[in-house]
Specification:
Largest sheet of chain B: 5 strands, mixed
Number of strands of chain B: 8
Distance between the termini of chain B: 12 Å
Structural class of chain A: alpha/beta
Number of helices of chain A: 18
CATH topology of the largest domain in chain A: Purple Acid Phosphatase, chain A, domain 2
Number of helices of chain B: 1
Number of domains of chain A: 2
Radius of gyration of chain B: 16 Å
Order of helices and strands of chain B: HEEEEEEEE
Strand content of chain A: 15-25%
CATH topology of chain B: Immunoglobulin-like
Strand content of chain B: 25-35%
Helix content of chain B: 10-25%
CATH class of the largest domain in chain A: Alpha Beta
CATH architecture of the largest domain in chain A: 4-Layer Sandwich
Largest interface: A-B, 50 and 30 residues
Structural class of chain B: alpha+beta
CATH superfamily of the largest domain in chain A: Metallo-dependent phosphatases
Radius of gyration of chain A: 23 Å
CATH architecture of chain B: Sandwich
Strand order of the largest sheet of chain A: 7-8-10-11-13-12
CATH class of chain B: Mainly Beta
Helix content of chain A: 25-40%
Distance between the termini of chain A: 44 Å
Number of domains of chain B: 1
Number of strands of chain A: 26
Shape of chain B: globular
Oligomer: heterodimer
CATH superfamily of chain B: SoxY domain
Amino acid sequence: MISRRDFLQATVAASAIYGASGVGNWSKLAAQQALTQDQLLDFDTFGNVTLVHVTDIHGQLKPVWFREPEINIGVGAARGQPPHLTGQDFLNYFDMKPGTPHAYALTYLDFVALARSYGKMGGLDRVATVLNAIRADRPDALLLDGGDTWHGSYTTLRTSGQDMVNVMNALKPDAMTSHWEFTLGTERVNEIVAGLDFPFLGANIFDATWDEPAYEPYKMFERGGAKIAVIGQAFPYLPIANPDWMFPELSFGIRDERMAELVQEVRDAGADLVVVLSHNGFDVDRKMAGQIKGIDVILTGHTHDALPEPVMVGDTMLIASGSNGKFVTRLDLDVRDGQLMGFRHKLIPVFSDVIEPDRDVAALIDAQRAPFKAELEEVLGTTDTLLYRRGNFNGTWDDLICNALIDEREADIALSPGFRWGPSLLPGAPITREDLFNATAMTYPAAYRSEMTGETLKLILEDVADNLFNPDPYYQQGGDMVRVGGMGYRIDVRAERGKRISDMTLLKTGEAIAPARSYVVSGWASVNEGTEGPAIWDVVESYIKRQGTVSVDPNKSVKVTGA
Amino acid sequence: MELTRRGAIALGAGVAATLVLPIRAMASADAAIAEFTGGAEMGEGGLEFITPEIAENGNTVPIEVRAPGATAIAVFATGNPTPKVATFNFGPLAGAQRASTRIRLAGTQDVVAVAKMADGSFVRASNNVKVTIGGCGG
């Protein structure tokens, strides 16, 4: 008899072969300019249960360009492991060829050239088509949304998430969890949740005063004769990474002991399959999978990683489905007698020029955008440079934002938070207001201007660096490094807490930053209540309009060692 | 990611304090623990100590201790100027040997719980709790 572990390993191998052959086909198809929808959606239905995972859509109703990171350093046990592989290393690991559609979707290599060949990705009308195809095979497939859905665009901001709620409702999710949703404020979240046809899960969301569960922790489903428990895990560090005054009633945290209790509770209640719909971030989930026994599948989110194969931790399968609507994961499972016997997995890349939009959802999306059409389409300027954000240390979008802050706010130094959301723009493209908001839309946008000492600046850099490079993922928050304009520095990612940052230099003079001296610093997205200043999009809009055409020089001011 | 100037100064001062404190605080934490155990060896296991990995608010950090069969559990914040935080005593009629409270932490530090078991032996558990500025997640 084949043991469960052997079976899982066998199916992982099979999935690798399946994935590889798919890639091979695509590269050939790409050469023939014949990527087809049937090819993208092709899937040999398997077992008795299907999970469909989308996550971190960040308000992107329409197709986008999204360049994957060039630098994504893993520390501790995650060093050199997926998802901390980029570019050619990623292609080598997953046996893919450069220049293929998959290489374009999953890496930064030749991004601009390939983007022009293969087009934008995502769009919830295309995601709807993918879902229709999956539901045609398996009508009761579970659609699970990992959160960061009601945030990240002009229309989402202006409607307080209503545009995304309306469109997602049309896709009929079976459950979701959350992170940025709470930056709409607790009251608005609860108002939306009250009207949802599906549960808003968060096992780790507690009432801050009484330390009691504040939202539904899990939901049991019956599919294909199996009982499936879906446990929701919201982003653990909301009150630290985002303004806690927007949801003062709530406390979060990883809460391992709570997760362990719930896994036991759902098993006792007869769950044949335990799924965690998580917004922990990949490395946190990888650790959690090792700490807590009895989880079959973790649908990861938050860190925006896309992986073409599951990562196994013991008997637990970790799935990473990317961000911004670029990918949909389909996971077919054979669940029998309280056990997961095998699986088939496909990370479906949503090539927007290949996958036909679903007409009803396309119309619904247009209806959400119609009231804002003129503002969305207004052209503010043009970019000469590829604008992108994702990467551990800097991206050209934030370099542009920092340039705008220094120039418009007359600052020595600019700080821009290490967000992972924000699509890309190709060189030569007009910058519309929609594009600007895709990189900045949020509910605490004030661009402050204040004085900070060199010592404080170092403290901030060290603090954020530890949130990114602490070797224990439970001490990480899952963002990227704060982006800095006007100042260079050196970082040793493997040094201990408080000792990673050195050689801080004021770029305009070339002088070392003096700990006791004060510098004029401008930044945005402060978590402090009552922060004053114009909205960041107004600052950047004014800068772009003055420049007409913006170009961003390559940023060479951060020196990284220890990677 | 921002600090108001005043906040920044206060924080800077706080950090300076933790930079200066550890050696002295550590020593006084060891002394406080020794006072509780009478200098006895401490084992491991049988004591569950639940703390957040990163504090949402360093001024009020929820902690919980559970040690079935313990007669007392003491908690020490090794990086605080006064490390001795709390001692929970459990009488013979106590239904469960568990307690929770909230504590204040001066900065990132190890927080230690020590349980005195019914047979007079001691067990120890230590967790690192990070106190951070926050604000850059995403």
